Amino acid sequence: MVNYGGISCWVDIDNSAAMEYDIRTFEDQRIVTCWIASEVGKSFSVSWRNSFLPAPTAGHVFMDGNECGGRVLYGPSTVCAKHEGVTDTRTVKPFVFAPLALTDDDAFLGDSSNHRKLGCIEVAIYPVQIFGLVPVVANSSTLSEIKVHERSKKSVTQQIRLAEPRMLAVPQNAVAHRFTGPPLVTFVFKYRPLDILRASGIIPPPLPPLQLKRKPEAASLPYAEPPSEEDDLSDAEEIRVLREKLYALEAKRARKTRVKEEEENIPPNTAGWSRKKAKLSVN
């Protein structure tokens, strides 16, 4: 919703609040503008609320520049005013987005002044004095089909029409009132199709789909058959033989080390005698 001076306003499309984009406030004119995405065939309503202004207010609604009635709020409240179409005492013709009628008739080429507010939903909030309830006077607004030359439509491709009437659950009355001053604020909702708003950069493009990282696939390994009992026995035999060789090598190395140590500990004279004895024994 958009806000100004304690008054909030929004558009519901198919009973869901429309997202507003590029909201701008013009303080000197007391105007708040924004963009909403519209879709042909969908109905909509306009609602507003006075949060704390201590005076009655009236909201008057304009569709494509055509006055379409309004609602009165008696003072600040959590209750909102909802305007969903053109009403009489017992029926309502809901607002609906419709395609714009195009023509190649050059008679419509210069007829742009009458369509200056085409593509706009306006809600003007006035301070009012209330006089009481009166019978509802049928609204003369029909929102008839608008024809625009195909070369002057620009980005506007839709208009607002009235759907088939439906019965109201409770008959309505009107509130007689008069304006006591200029509009406190005017809310302007400029409606366009979603693709046009995106192409114009008003609505950001949709986010790319989330790419989930794939788990690395398990490396394919060659299949190995489980060892048989014979393989187990041959492996055990090989281990036993290797151990025996290891023990023999360690014992041999230990003997060499011991002999070397004994020779180093023999006294010099004894060593010479031993060498002589060894020589004589050979002869």
TrEMBL record:
Superkingdom of source: Eukaryota
Record-annotated DUF7918 domain positions: 6-204
Pfam family, one: DUF7918
Chain ranges passing through the membrane: none
Biased composition (Basic residues): 274-283
UniProt-annotated stretches for the region Disordered: 253-283
InterPro entries in alphabetical order: DUF7918 (IPR057678)
Name of this chain's protein: DUF7918 domain-containing protein
